[in-house]
Amino acid sequence: MKKLLAGRLLVAAVLGMFALFAAAGPAAAQETVKFGVAGAHSGDLASYGISGLRGVEQAVKEINAKGGVLGKQIQIVPEDDECKPEKATNAASKLVSEKVPLVIGHICSGATKSAMGIYKEAKILAMSPSATNPDLTQSGDYPNFFRTIASDDAQAKMEVDFALNTMKFTKIAVLHDKGDYGKGLAEFAKKFTEASGKAKVVLYEGITPGAVDYSAVIQKIKKSDAEAVIYGGYHPEAAKLVMGMRKKKMETVFISDDGVKDDTFIKVAKEYAEGVYATGPKDTSQNPMTVAAVEAHKAEYKSDPGAFYLNAYAATLALANAINKAGSTEYDALTKTLRAEFVETPIGKISFDERGDAIGVGFSVYQVQKGVYVELK
Questions:
Q1: How far, rounded to the nearest angstrom, does the alpha carbon of residue 10 sit from its chain's CA centroid?
Q2: Tens digit of each residue's pLDDT (9 = 90 or more) over 27-57
Q3: Does the global pTM surpass 0.85?
Q4: Residue after which a domain boundary falls, among 209, 239, 257
Q5: Cα 334 off chain centre by
Q6: Structural domain range at position 115
Q7: Is residue 1 part of a domain?
C-alpha cells in the first residue's frame, strides 16, 4: 500500500512538474523583447551585413547587462538577405512571422525597399544603419523607416564638392552599378556636377555587377579624358574598375561612396587601392562611447569593426532608449518617441526628423593611404 501511495505521489509530482513547465514556457518566452536584424550575412556583401549584426550584438550585450528594456532581455532574431531584393522579402516575411516589434536593417538600399512594404503593412518599424537611398525617407512611402546614416544626396554633394572645389577637376565621368543605391547616388552626382557650372560630365554609364572585367567601360573613361571617376556602387565592382584602370597606367582619380569605404575593397584591390577616395560616416573615434564599442569588438572578434558596426550599434541604443522612454514596443509610441528624444551613441548625440533621417550624423571624405582609409580634414 505504501509503495502504491508512493508511486501515485511520484506520478502526481511528475505531472505537476510538466504542468509547471508547460505554464512557464509561454511566460518565459514573453520575458524577452525580439529585435529582428536583417542584412547580408552571407554572399559578396557579407562584410557589410556582418559588421551591422556585430554592432547589434555588442550593443545588446551592453543593454542586457544593465537590465534590458522594460525589465526584459533583448533577443536577437537574425535573417540573411544577401543584399538581394528577392531574398529581402523572404527575410521580412520571416521576421513578421516571428512577431518582432522592430527590425534593425536592411543593409543595402534595394533590399531595404523590397522589405519595407511588408513591414509597413505589419506596422513594424525598421531602422537601417546603412541604406542611404533618398527615396526611402523623402518619398513619404515608408513612414516606418528610420536610418542612422545620412542619405545619398548629402553624400553625392560632398563627393562633387570635393572633386570640383578641392581637386579643381573640370571633366568628370560618373558610373554606377544600376542598383537603387549606386544609380541613385550617381544621378545626384551628375545633377550636382552639371548644376555647378564648374565641370562637365564627360561620361555617364551603368555597369553590370558581377562582370569578369570592365575593359570596355575603362576604355570609354580613357577616351573621355575624364580627370576623375565618381562611382556609385559597392566594393566588388569598384575593385575591378580600379585595378583595370591602374593596370592600363591610367591616373584618373577614383572617388566613390560608403559602399566602397570598406577594408574588403583594400584587401581585394591591394596596392591598386592606394590613393582612392571614398565618402563614409564621420570619424568619431575620439568619442568615449566609440572607443568602448571598438574595444568590445576587438575583444569579442579579435579584429577591427567593419563599415557599419557603429551605425548599427547606434541604432540599437536609439531603439532601446525609445522603448524604455515610451514604456512600450507599440509602433506609434516608438515612432513618436524616436522623433522626440535625443540619445548618446558612438556616432554622436542623435535623434530623428519627421522623415526618419538621423539628426546629428554626416559624411567625411577618406583616402586610402598606406593600405588604410584615412579621414581628410
A1: 56
A2: 344 589 999 999 999 999 999 999 999 999 9
A3: no
A4: 257
A5: 20
A6: 31-149+285-361
A7: no
